[in-house]
Amino acid sequence: MSDVPHFDSFEEFWPYYVREHAKKTTRVLHFTGTSLALATAAYAALKRRPRLLLLAPVLGYGLSWIGHFFVEQNRPATFTYPLWSLRGDFRMLAKMIAGTMDAEVERVMNDAQRGNGSAEHDVEPAGESSSAN
Q: For the segment 68-80, what is each residue's pLDDT rounded down to a tens digit?
């Protein structure tokens, strides 16, 4: 499992976040978990059942962490950068809906291979191809 380097801004953190989500299966698990968490929160608010809000993070983080621990085999950045990680989840969700996340993964991975960016931030996951959203 990879160590999380230090970042001073979200924009600096974003390429690291993308590399930690290089595998399609991880991104799909995040998409599903984030979508279920949002739907659960909306349902809880509409039905005025606040106890259901407790289920939202379980769904969101549960599926996401399965992707990190078993697919990417890395440590979720949530433990070190909880707010930036959540912001990254929402940016990734938006890019997946827009159909642009594949291109973003490809761009970030290519930048890492060319050595663009700080070496301390270039942590590449091994394994599954990231060519599909």
A: 999 999 999 898 9
